[in-house]
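USER:
Working in pairs, take the chain set out below, taking as long as you need, and write a paragraph about the fold.
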Amino acid sequence: MEWANETLVTEFVFLGFSSLAGLQQLLFAVFLLVYLFMLGTNVVIVSTIVLDRALHTPMYFFLGVLSCSETCYTFVIVPKMLVDLLAQKKTISFLGCAIQMFFFLFLICSHSFLLAAMGYDRYVAICNPLRYTVLMGFGVCMGLVAAACACGFIISLATTSMIFHLPFHSSNKLHHFCDVSPVLKLASHQSYLNQLVIFVLGVFVLVIPLLLILVSYVLIISAILKIPSSVGRYKAFSTCASHLIVVTVHYGCASFIYLRPKSNYSSSQDTLISVSYTILTPLFNPMIYSLRNKEFKSSLQRAMTHTSYSIN
């Protein structure tokens, strides 16, 4: 075979921000502060939801799970990125790359299905308010989260296994982390079937949840338009606004990365979108949900007042 005399890839080299060599320490400081702020924000959100019984509702249950999910998937990527900004040797083993890809895809895919579950929650709350507590009981919420995780696990396992069973003999340079398209481009050989299956899985994890969300919002909008007062329509729609913003950001970035034709890949574009997807999006999503929500802000103020009172 033509690969017989070529060296098998045993590790991958992260290029990172090598073109900005003079700014490595500044980038480290900026990304570290953003990462710590994101972690702190998510801890505050989850703690407030757990401590305040007024927030023990399906919507806030899903928000807490969303915050935990985003904290976990940034933990898979960002610490390694921060270390590489200061390290001379920016490498990851072949197995380490596979593990990183598996957990990243698992959490991202679960995230997509979780957003669909949140859309269903908003549909039930607006279109079936009298049966909301029955249709969205704790068991149902746990079942939806478990289903989202199961879908994410299966898709991630299938995709990662298929990619890392491909031969890698030539280049081993990646930009920031082990994502699907950058690693796939390094494979020495890709069969049409492999590319097709990976593309179909990507479409499935993006399109199916998005279709479920769209169906939910068609029914939601139909129900809102039947509300006689403009104030009532505004209040009903305002409960969905944060979810819509997060869905738009999530699917916009994900579609740009995973559903582009292969000829349109650009390293500089991938770098910008990857940084946004792994650092900025998890930072803004919890803030969008919490800062736009009067009920959550009231609960946070009560929790801070109670904490300061206990300390004094």
User: Anything to note?
Assistant: Residues 2 and 188 are 10 Å apart (CA to CA). Residues 94-127 form the longest helix (34 residues). The radius of gyration is 22 Å. The mean pLDDT is 81.
